[in-house]
Amino acid sequence: MGHKRKKFSERVADRTNRGFDESPFKNATSDTPKGFSRIMFKKESMAQRAQDKRQHGSSEDLGLSAKEKKAAAAANNNSNNNNKDGTGSKGYGKQETSELRIQPGERMGDFSRRVDDHMREKMMKATRDNTSSGSKKKKYFEKLKAKEQAKKLKAQEEKAYEEYETIQDRIRLNDIADAPPTLTAIPKKRKNDDFMANKKWKNAPGEEDFEDQIADLDKTKKRKLLEVGKEDDKDKRTSVVENGIKKSRLKNLTPAGRRIIEEERKQAIENYRLMKARKELDRGGRSKAQDHDAAADDAEAAAAGY
Fold it and tell me: I need a surface site. Which of 78, 108, 113, 233 has the fewest CB within 10 A?
């Protein structure tokens, strides 16, 4: 890192070793930019390093770090294994070994990075193969998903086919009917089929019609009800009227409202009776029949809420 430097004591020692008032360097007065001079020096050092490697044939005496030596050893082992298996002699194996060898002038860091990129796919495949339980679970879910998709597709196909069957008999525009439709379906049997089959719809001479009999029965029922209504006394008729009025008016009221109305009705009846009693006292005595009719009228008026 650029901000780091040697200790002060080491810097003082280096300064003393260099000496004082020495003659300038050979390139001290050169006009060459420092960046360009660094590039040229790096190129020269790379060429010298490649030459040393060709002479020695290994990376032991080149002053490499432990990591760079380890990467070079792994590359050499891979190339040796490929040669033993026969993959390095022909075809793709030979190309792999040539790719995994360090090139002339190539730095060890670049070479190790190239080896890692080349072996990354194989390493990932090896890790996936080692996790057998995960792969089995994944395959199981993939098969299950494929079955569900196949089932959905089959259901959609069957539905489309059924819809097509219902649509294919539809009458087109401007079609002309040559004959009426023929009914091929057999009708279902009903409960009254036997009765309807044996029924004599045409009346024999001297026989009354069935509908006429029903009309006569309705007339007799209505007549009886009218006679019973006439025979009832006035008290029953007043009770019927009272109940009808109560049902019609008090049907939609709450219990509290009904109680209040009942109390007001009783109070109105008492007031009406008092008023009638006063009128009778003013008029004097009357007959019993007239009194009975007046009492009936009073009861009807009270029931009506007057």
Answer: 233
| Stretch (H or E) spanning 24 | none
Task: Report helix angle 66-85 to 108-130, nearest 10.
Answer: 60
Please give the structure tokens belonging to residue 29.
Answer: 């007065």
Q: Residues 274, 302: contact at Cβ < 8 Å?
A: no
Higher pLDDT, 218 or 272: 272
Task: Please give the Cα distance from 56 to 62 (Å, whole number).
Answer: 9
Residue 241, token pair as written in the block: 């009227």
pLDDT tens per residue across span 180-227 = 878 888 777 766 666 555 555 444 444 455 556 666 666 776 676 666
Tokens 């939609």 map to which residue?
252
* Both tokens assigned to 106: 């190539």
Cβ–Cβ under 8 Å, residues 306 and 267: no
Which residues contact residue 276 at a Cβ distance below 8 angstroms, ignoring those fewer than 6 apart?
294, 298
Q: Which residues contact 96 (CB under 8 A, 6 or more apart)?
A: 82, 87, 88, 118
67-102 as b/e: b if 16+ CB within 10 A? ebeebbeebeebbeebeeeebbeeeebeebbeebeb
Confidence at residue 177, expressed as pLDDT on a 0 to 100 scale: 78
Q: Which of 74, 79, 49, 76 is nearest to 64 (CA)?
A: 49
Determine the Cα–Cα distance for residues 275 and 272; give it in Å rounded to an integer: 5
